[in-house]
Design a protein that fits this description.
Strand content: 15-25%
Radius of gyration: 23 Å
Mean pLDDT: 93
Shape: flat
Distance between the termini: 44 Å
Largest sheet: 5 strands, antiparallel
Length: about 300
């Protein structure tokens, strides 16, 4: 029998409530959104600049490229802006800021670590291993996300973690992801949606298709089957749900490992994503891909 010697390491992973992200903070009530916009539009340019200067002093030290975040959130409410006059960039930034909120990712806990070999092993001494660690971070409202760390295991078993950046940044969610037709059809079969409406939606799509392609096909099927039945509505809702559950993220190459966060994106993850377990897979051609399973929770089921 082979015996395994285990040694408890002195490293402790402690949460840091100062690590925060900026999330959209947009009221569900359209009237409230319009009222807030009205207050910003009433400000003079001088008042706008003063507010922006205050925001930069307060928040810039905690966030990487804060103006890009403000402009992203401005774009979310831009359709609700009721004035035809052109807006200055400072005013657009301020609008984005008032519809933003900070979220402390680790304010409740940081736990459930899991490690995999780092794709870059250059400079590691013989017998050692550079690794990436995934962690579950739990913040306000008990919403969980996936954080990352990196480090090295030396040949003698000594573990060292790389310094953790004070910045943490969410990735860009690509607006028109690509899907695989075969995967969609298999998933519909698993969910019991083998019907004429699914077939009609999938038939005109290629082996790979985009969200725009899918939306166009769904719209065609909906139009051709008026008045809609309960089965049609249920099926097309399932198609959209499956598409929402499959998305693509892109991190800036400038970001370090500890500066990257995977935060809930789809409605199915609205109350958290937890306990990612990554594995390194090498195919027959030698290409390497990392896959992970994780738990998603929407607060209802």
């Amino acid at each position: 029998m082979i015996s395994i010697h285990l040694r408890r390491h002195e490293i402790m992973l402690l949460p840091d409530s100062a690590r925060v992200i900026i999330r959209p903070f947009i009221p569900a009530n359209t009237n409230r959104v319009v009222a807030i916009l009205g207050r910003v539009l009433e400000l003079s340019e001088e008042e706008v600049m003063l507010e922006l200067e205050m925001l930069h002093r307060e928040f810039e030290s905690r966030h990487y490229d804060i103006e890009a975040l403000m402009m992203t959130h401005y774009a979310l409410v831009k359709p609700q802006i009721f004035t035809q006059r052109p807006l200055s960039r400072p005013r657009e930034l301020l609008i984005g800021a008032v519809f933003s909120g900070e979220y402390a990712l680790e304010s409740a806990a940081l736990f459930n670590p899991s490690i995999i070999p780092h794709p870059d092993q250059s400079g590691v001494e013989e017998g050692g291993l550079r690794f990436i660690m995934s962690l579950r971070a739990t913040g306000e409202g008990h919403i969980s996300s996936i954080e990352f760390r990196s480090g090295v295991i030396a040949a003698n078993g000594q573990i060292s973690l790389d310094p953790v950046s004070r910045f943490v940044t969410m990735p860009e969610v690509l607006p028109n992801p690509t899907y695989r037709k075969k995967s969609f059809i298999l998933k519909f079969h698993e969910m019991g949606f083998d019907n004429e409406f699914v077939n009609a939606v999938m038939a005109p799509l290629g082996k790979e298709f985009t969200r725009q392609d899918l939306n166009k096909s769904v719209g065609t099927v909906r139009h051709e089957n008026k008045p809609g039945t309960h089965e049609l509505t249920r099926t097309l809702d399932c198609v959209q749900w499956l598409a929402d559950s499959n998305y693509e993220l892109r991190f800036s190459s400038k970001l370090g490992v500890s500066e990257r966060i995977i935060f809930p994106v789809s409605p199915n993850e609205s109350n958290g994503i937890e306990d990612a377990r990554f594995v390194r897979f090498t195919d027959a051609a030698g290409s390497v891909m990392y896959y992970a399973t994780y738990t998603a929770y929407n607060g209802r089921a």
